[in-house]
Amino acid sequence: MSENKYVYFFGGKQAEGNGSMKNLLGGKGANLHDMNLIGIPVPPGFTITTEVCNDYYKIGKDETVKIIKPAVEAAMKQVEAAVGGPLFGGAQNPLLVSVRSGARASMPGMMDTILNLGLNDEVVEIIAVKSGNPRFAWDSYRRFVQMYGDVVLGMKPESKEDHDPFEVIIEEIKEEKGVELDTELKVEDLQEMVKRFKAVVKEKTGNDFPTNPWEQLWGAITAVFDSWMNDRAIFYRKLNNIPAEWGTAVNVQAMVFGNMGLNSATGVAFTRDAATGENIFNGEYLINAQGEDVVAGIRTPQQITLEGSIRWAAQQGITEDVRKKEYPSLEETMPVVYKELFDIQNHLETHYKDMQDIEFTIQDGKLWMLQTRNAKRTGACMVRAAMEMVAEGMISEKDAILRVEPEKLDELLHPVFDKAALKKAKTVAKGLPASPGAATGQIVFFADDAEAWAAEGKKIILVRIETSPEDLRGMNVAEGILTARGGMTSHAAVVARGMGKCCVSGAGKIEIDYKTRTVKMSGNVYSEGDFISLNGSTGEVYEGKITTMSPELSGYFGELMTLSDKYSRMYVRTNADTPHDAAVARKFGAQGIGLCRTEHMFFEGEKIFAMREMILADDEAGRRKALAKLLPIQRQDFEGIFEAMDGLPVTVRLLDPPLHEFVPHEEENQKEMAKEMGISYEQVKRKVESLHEFNPMLGHRGCRLGNTYPEISEMQTRAIIEAAMNLNKKGKKAIPEIMIPLAGTKKELEMQINIVRRVAEEVFAERGEKIEYLVGTMIEIPRAALTANEFADVAEFFSFGTNDLTQMTFGYSRDDIGSFLPIYLDKNILKFDPFQVLDQEGVGQLVRMGTEKGRSVRPNLKVGICGEHGGEPSSVEFCHTVGMNYVSCSPFRVPIARLAASQAAIKEGK
Amino acid sequence: MSENKYVYFFGGKQAEGNGSMKNLLGGKGANLHDMNLIGIPVPPGFTITTEVCNDYYKIGKDETVKIIKPAVEAAMKQVEAAVGGPLFGGAQNPLLVSVRSGARASMPGMMDTILNLGLNDEVVEIIAVKSGNPRFAWDSYRRFVQMYGDVVLGMKPESKEDHDPFEVIIEEIKEEKGVELDTELKVEDLQEMVKRFKAVVKEKTGNDFPTNPWEQLWGAITAVFDSWMNDRAIFYRKLNNIPAEWGTAVNVQAMVFGNMGLNSATGVAFTRDAATGENIFNGEYLINAQGEDVVAGIRTPQQITLEGSIRWAAQQGITEDVRKKEYPSLEETMPVVYKELFDIQNHLETHYKDMQDIEFTIQDGKLWMLQTRNAKRTGACMVRAAMEMVAEGMISEKDAILRVEPEKLDELLHPVFDKAALKKAKTVAKGLPASPGAATGQIVFFADDAEAWAAEGKKIILVRIETSPEDLRGMNVAEGILTARGGMTSHAAVVARGMGKCCVSGAGKIEIDYKTRTVKMSGNVYSEGDFISLNGSTGEVYEGKITTMSPELSGYFGELMTLSDKYSRMYVRTNADTPHDAAVARKFGAQGIGLCRTEHMFFEGEKIFAMREMILADDEAGRRKALAKLLPIQRQDFEGIFEAMDGLPVTVRLLDPPLHEFVPHEEENQKEMAKEMGISYEQVKRKVESLHEFNPMLGHRGCRLGNTYPEISEMQTRAIIEAAMNLNKKGKKAIPEIMIPLAGTKKELEMQINIVRRVAEEVFAERGEKIEYLVGTMIEIPRAALTANEFADVAEFFSFGTNDLTQMTFGYSRDDIGSFLPIYLDKNILKFDPFQVLDQEGVGQLVRMGTEKGRSVRPNLKVGICGEHGGEPSSVEFCHTVGMNYVSCSPFRVPIARLAASQAAIKEGK
Questions:
Q1: Which residues 739-768 of B have a C-beta within 8 angstroms of A?
Q2: Does the structure show a pLDDT above 70 at B427?
Q3: Helices (H), A44-163
Q4: Low-confidence residues of chain A, pLDDT below 70?
Q5: Which of A572, A610, B44, B315 shows the greatest Cβ crowding within 10 Å of its Cβ?
Q6: Cross-chain Cβ contact A783/B819 below 8 Å
Q7: Pairing mode, if any, of strands A366-374 and A356-363?
Q8: Do A410 and A896 form a contact (C-beta atoms < 8 A)?
Q9: Which ipTM value was assigned to this complex?
Q10: CA-wise closest residue to A789 among A882, A852, A881
């Protein structure tokens, strides 16, 4: 066991610890010490360190208790001295204490608090006499027995469906007495309750309820340590990436009682509005109550401020008379204490320079602070509070930027469900939160139907086993997309995010039957036309309609974005394939397009016919004929995009997906195609079969297409260059950057670059003028990163395609990880989905290597990222440290990336 | 233009160059200089350097001629001096010359030789007079016009189907004259021939045939330079990895004439038997002939030695009387010249310390050597000659080892077609040479039929679109396998090589129809039961039966192997899944198994049912039940393999392929399976569908299976450990090494290793004893190589799975590369198929990184390779330089790998 100090005392404006000691004393403990030091009234107590917790897991319970016992006893003596009179375990004037866990990071619900520790049959009588309030004494006692029984003695049932035996007894007694509220119970009822509580403890555990206060205390302390390794805590840590080695501290404090009568109360409050960020003190309290009563929902809590109270009453439809009588504010009921509380919250916010979430108790007219911590808040609140604190001079611009969690911005950009409506909703399935937002609509299963129904003004949800480019038009008109297969970077997910459209993907348990046009979820069958709702931010699927609300972008949001850019080194581009997406992204501050996929264009309208004609062609001449039809259409597409990005660079990637994605795979559609093309069904079928690949992801795609059918690259280059020149003619400015996909050897890249340069020169010669353009490459194959020095010989820019790079570096198919990724995350084999969060350890090595090798040959090489990771904050930070010039992400991630880029630059400077 | 010496003279035992100057003078040129220096009679001449050729491509024809003209003219004067009399272009006593190309490496057929240059209508008459042999003069003239017309003036048709206009004329005249052989033509016929030749030149080229000898010479010289870039030369260079920058030299030599009458002759010879390696001088000659007559097949060439002549006659069924009269040996016809030739060939072999391939001409009783070079030879010859030369003290052991091309050993290990029978065979398709050897048999399309037919004693060829593990038993009984799809590392190819069985894979143009049980090849339809033959060494498919012959392994082969091991640092293991394969490999010198794939075992006999039962199980309990049935069978399999490898280590890889490989995909088979398993067809169908993956190569396989279904790894570990202990009980020695496949993170590897160690300890506890075993991992995912330092923390050995590593590093699916790899090789985007030859530049970086990072943590880490590359010589050499402990390859590649490993060690030492 370490020989450091085990126990830190605080009390009476003195403290052995301070606010900077969160690692050792936990968050709650450090702030308790801190509040003492700045003169805020806190019940005296002591903190057992997190190191003791770690040792506890090494040397065991008995040894730990033996070693820290002297220190705990000494600290308890200090507490007794600070409260001046009552002694813990004392016979005349007994001291009661609370025991609370407190880890370095807040872990709500890890272990419940134990209040009123030290009570037994003798002590309760003394307190009844000394307080002159037997009801208070017995109320405290029955609360203690229940809490201790649940938390320390393990009486709390594992499952929520099972009944807490204590709650059962409470209900029994209330029924026997014919009362509804706890407060209506009399002293003798509470005495009976304690009796029955102890009996049930004896029955279930085989032991008598402990009566010795010190035994109670050690039981509680070790229960806190044990709770560090309970399932809930392990799960929470995994979810929040908290290492088990951190351990938890234990805080033991002299009790103060909010349940001592009508001059006592307990409450929680926020220094600002945690929903909107408005700088307004707010919170709730209950008179004559203790601990969790405020949030337990048994009694309706009252507002702390008068203003808040009036506002609340209006919302609830309660008249001012009723409000004043039944729900008065603390400002009204205890104006002096309120004034003190108001000053303290101001003091705390100024002291911590952040919005606080505080807990307090008023014991017989005296205010005690029990906790303060930085408040959890919504994205909107986070942005507004940060920006206002800058304006107030409380924090610096850099700190404001660092304080906003980039992911939280997402909340500001997408529709959300109305909270009240959501409460009543029934969850019927769960998938991956593939694209955020909320959506409600009628089920359709086919893209064609989606278009037809949408044309009739219906709101629809497209439900598919998986989506393919053929579904694009249907996805475009849908409110949301639900798929049974595919991960966070499946086709559906990627496209939906690009569109800023809600999507739940990989809901593996739903059973879709295209034939009967039904989907089975949680045992119910839903047919085409039935309403469902999706939450793309959580992956939940609900039955029926749920009202959605569109969030408004506040001025604070714009301010934050401007401020972010001020400190960024990298800039942010967007992945956009249409003028509409490009315009949306530009509105969000994108400084160009980092990835314009040309393949999606081929699916719109009549283009698919020409594309298929090309695929069906038996020779180059046939392909050229079909490509000639595609040329003007592609050129027009590019003109639209260049126009939307007027003056900003647009990186156009040449054709990437395997050709089989452009042909239908079902007999019916193949027959239709045959008819359209004027050829036999067998011909179509044979061609489609010949395009089949076992592992299309590793097959004939990317520049492998461009090198086997150079005429495709020629056509696309011509379309790009001509479109740019046409746009410039209109007085606008196109800045094309042509990008070669999937190059794995310098030679294949070089062949494509040669085609691009040759065709560009041809166009220049035809038109008698030239424009500037760049030719570069995706780095998305491990071999490309490994030999990037060679690539940089011929490429003018690199863009890391980390989706494919992750696939090949891990050997994971994005479309097939559903069968093992959830298990891998569950077993902690993977800390995160590497398609969402860039794997810095493995894939990151290749990204760094690729960048460094590239720049070793071409020092000013422009380097960016266009994989999905370009919009994920930790990945953006990594891109910054690698030295990239920009990140590119889907339009709705642009603000997140801008903030993350700024934070990366600020962190680096620190 | 470089200012080095352009032209090097040789003649009269003097030479400006020597044998070490192959880079500058080409192989032929350097040896001509060399022969002069060692006193061998060579017609005087000069060599224009390869540097001039390179300059020619920079500065062009006119400039080149201008610059080198003085040097050529000066050298020609030296030649005139050396021959003592005749002058080039001289009116009284004209000198004729030959012009030959000569690159650094021999490039047969790049450019034809031009003989008799300097002839025109005047010169021919002078020579007729001076030689007293007008027929000789005109025969030489007509030969010259034809050769010059074909080679320099471009009269030779591009396609073999088109007629050479000169040949047409020869046939016309022979017909007019009613003769069959050229030698029967009279002087006036030859004169007429020259006249018509010149007319056709004028007609086709628009120009008169050049009469000025110098103009002829410059035409010939520049034609040699031009030929360096003709299609044939480019193709040959690509095939043999010869850089274009090497250029070709030009050799101009005074003519000597083998066609000057009955005391003249020309011939080719080998210092040893190029087929068997027997140390016996042999060759062919023709009296009164020139140049290519010997090999052209118009006249039957005669043997040089008496012994050879007698042997030849016996083979041809020719009586000794006829032989003596019509086909006497040179030893008989010109015994003095023969003696001189015999001494010279001895001299040359001793001088070059290698078997020589020589050309000579006898002019009027005087012997002239025209060329000597290291002879091309068969594998058998290569081995025998090398070993005998060591015995003769001619070369060192190391040189003998270096001299054998490892790939050539393959010829010694597999059946080959009878050459005579092959000549008559009709090629009907071409695929990839997937597994060497020759096979003849009847077509069957299904594995079941293969087994049934083979049971009847029929020899069969299994013809499939592609093979899967379901076909294993059928493959095992087949003589050979032909597939329409799949590359060199497709399932069919890998398995066939493992079995040492002939296979042609990816014959893309054949059309297989399983329904009608027919295959269409080259327009013909072949049915089940029809005979075809496969050459797995070339990829050719023939119609009908062709006799095959099994080669005998000579004692020289064993000697070479023993000698190789003496100098190797790495040792060689084998990839074997059955006791039979293991035994074969052991016979070939394998020192253990580097890869035993357990999955193949599941397909034999009844095992597949238990395997399918496991796959169909809905929960762990069901899987465990099925696995319990598999345990004893697997244990028995392992015992067999351990026994075959008694005393040598056996690396067993845990289950690797995705589960869908074990279930049938066709309705009929699914119904059968349902019946066998006693469940509904729909259940089977649904399960198989649920196992479908878009990219199975990147899906749920390898240790991902073992980590999602740990019970599989448990069963396999138990089977391995128990089998090893059982075998040891029998007094034998099993050395198991358990290998985890497809690990990409340390954590997933660690979880598997923990399972292995736990189960092993369980077995040890049950049996009350322990055995030694290792646990290690495949390094086959790029991320594994990148983070190999972490892997080495927990793995006791690494085995590079370069098949998968290549797939993921390049992003190529082995099964799908057929659509672009041939084009990539053709366009020289790839220099070689990276699945055959390890890509040292890209994949090699990961191999090196993985090895170094692994050893940085565990310095004595055992490292090997078990991908297909482990049997490819250049890859084996790479593995040596990386510092691997061993390579592992299919049984029939073991000798090749042993030799390659030895060569690598010797080369490193040099």
A1: 742, 744-745, 747-748, 751
A2: yes
A3: 50-59, 61-83, 121-131, 134-151
A4: 1-3, 108-110, 158-161, 239, 294-298, 489, 551-552
A5: A572
A6: no
A7: antiparallel
A8: yes
A9: 0.83
A10: A852
